[in-house]
Design brief:
The structure holds two protein chains of two kinds. Chain A is an alpha+beta fold. Helices cover 32% and strands 20% of the residues of chain A. By secondary structure, chain B is mostly helical. Classes of the chains: A alpha+beta, B mainly alpha.
């Protein structure tokens, strides 16, 4: 195990990433401000895989340590709290991962060919570097674990593509984990009565969700169903989204496996 | 150490059942973990009312998100304590804004090692190990870790509170945690 990640990883962690590694300790203790946390999350997104994995491994080890430490501060909660919590379960809905619109592919036949041609032609498309990324909040408390799961996957990759309406869309994805984080930077809200709809290709386009004006500017969006995807696109669709794309993409990026 | 491994395996089974909406499994997990989870929350928040609210939020989150727990990322207890600590710290920071911080919570650095004695036979040895290992930290390491973890201070605030530089605090926290981790024999990746 690497306790001492900065030093022991000297060969693989580049100089710029070393400062990042030293933040793993305060990060694991939640001893960073919300702003620092999101800055660190953003740096993790752009750090090399080696650094990212070392960072998260250090964090996980520390979380195990702090969990063991809990044996020293035990305090049994009052019995009323137990009843209150158990009573509340019935009111809660069951958990769901981000949903994917599986009906999407069904009625797409007429458009499939055109889309496939487009996809093929656009393979050489706009893959913007990660240069000027804006600091955005990576994840809220409740979805943090999932964002992390994507970040730590051995096959995690990030692509950023220009959106023709303005701004960029950044997709951090793990095909293995079957999930992605999508972030929009500087993208204007969709025109009234329309939404942006995100698609992936593994054959015919499949919807992975719609984006309304209200969704822009919030935390990166978690989507699932990425396994096998070879490219990503965004179209403008009527409110509520479409079963298959009805217009040409305003953004497109191939997704290297 | 094998106690930890078997406990983690047991909690994983409970979480799988909870993911299928098994309320009995949830009650079992609550009974097995709430003294530790609530105790930590209480230590951070110090206010019983806030602490009960936070503990409740965390357990309901565990109920909702049990299906998302990923064994690759560590033990169930670490996952739960991480959720709980983050919520407790968010709460303590929002409650303790500015001037009333000191008034509400005082500036004492050390709290007693045991808030309340609750020990099963199995947990007794763990508790002893933790007390022993905490004792292996230098006073300054112990103080920095306490301020950061149990008082919800950022490392910048720890530096301000102690009147030392940021690099000093960083290295105290880091050295202290590495020592603790080794002493407790913790590794999530073995």
């Amino acid at each position: 195990m690497n306790d001492d990640s900065d030093r022991s990883a000297g060969g693989t962690v580049n100089f710029a990433d070393r400062g990042l590694m030293s933040l793993a300790y305060p990060y694991a203790l939640d001893a960073v401000s919300a702003l620092e946390r999101s800055e660190i999350d953003t740096r993790l997104l752009t750090a090399n895989t080696e650094t990212r994995q070392l960072f998260l491994r250090t964090v996980h080890d520390l979380r195990e340590t702090m969990a063991v430490l809990a044996a020293a501060t035990m305090s049994t909660p009052p019995p009323e709290l137990r009843s209150r919590i158990l009573d509340a379960l019935d009111c809660l809905q069951e958990p769901q991962l981000a949903t994917i619109d599986t009906a999407a592919a069904a009625s797409a036949r007429t458009r499939q060919l055109r889309w496939r041609r487009y996809a093929a032609a656009a393979v050489a498309a706009i893959l913007v570097g990660l240069g000027g990324i804006v600091v955005t909040q990576l994840a809220s408390t409740s979805s943090d674990a999932d964002a992390e799961q994507i970040l730590v996957a051995p096959d995690t990759k990030t692509v950023t593509t220009a959106v023709s309406a303005g701004g960029t869309a950044t997709l951090t994805y793990s095909l293995q984990k079957d999930a992605a984080l999508v972030r929009f930077d500087g993208v204007p809200p969709p025109a009234s009565g329309t939404v942006y709809q995100m698609w992936i290709f593994k054959g015919p386009p499949q919807s992975i969700g719609t984006v309304t004006a209200a969704d822009l500017g919030s935390d990166p969006r978690m989507v699932s169903g990425m396994r096998g995807a070879t490219s990503f696109a965004i179209t403008v669709e009527p409110s509520g989204g479409s079963a298959a794309p009805t217009s040409n993409p305003i953004a497109f990026a191939p997704l290297p496996a | 150490m094998s106690d930890r491994v078997s406990e983690a395996a047991y909690f994983r089974v409970l979480l799988r059942r909870i993911a299928n909406s098994d309320q009995a499994a949830f009650a079992e997990l609550f009974d097995a973990t709430s003294p530790r989870l609530h105790g930590m929350v209480l230590r951070v928040l110090r206010n019983p009312g806030y602490s009960e609210e936070t503990t409740q939020e965390v357990y309901l989150q565990i109920w909702r998100d049990a299906a998302r727990y990923d064994a690759d990322r560590g033990s169930p207890l670490a996952w739960m304590m991480t959720l709980a600590h983050r919520r407790a710290v968010d709460r303590v920071r929002s409650e303790q804004s500015g001037a009333n911080r000191e008034a509400l919570y005082g500036s004492s650095t050390y709290a007693p090692a045991h808030d309340q004695v609750y020990e099963s036979v199995l947990q007794k040895s763990e508790t002893d190990a933790v007390v022993f290992c905490l004792g292996s930290l230098t006073n300054t390491q112990h103080e920095s870790v306490q301020l950061a973890y149990y008082q919800g201070l950022t490392y910048q605030q720890v530096a301000d509170r102690l009147g030392v530089g940021l690099p000093t605090v960083k290295s105290r926290i880091r050295e202290g945690l590495i020592k603790l981790k080794r002493c407790l024999g913790v590794s999530s990746y073995e």
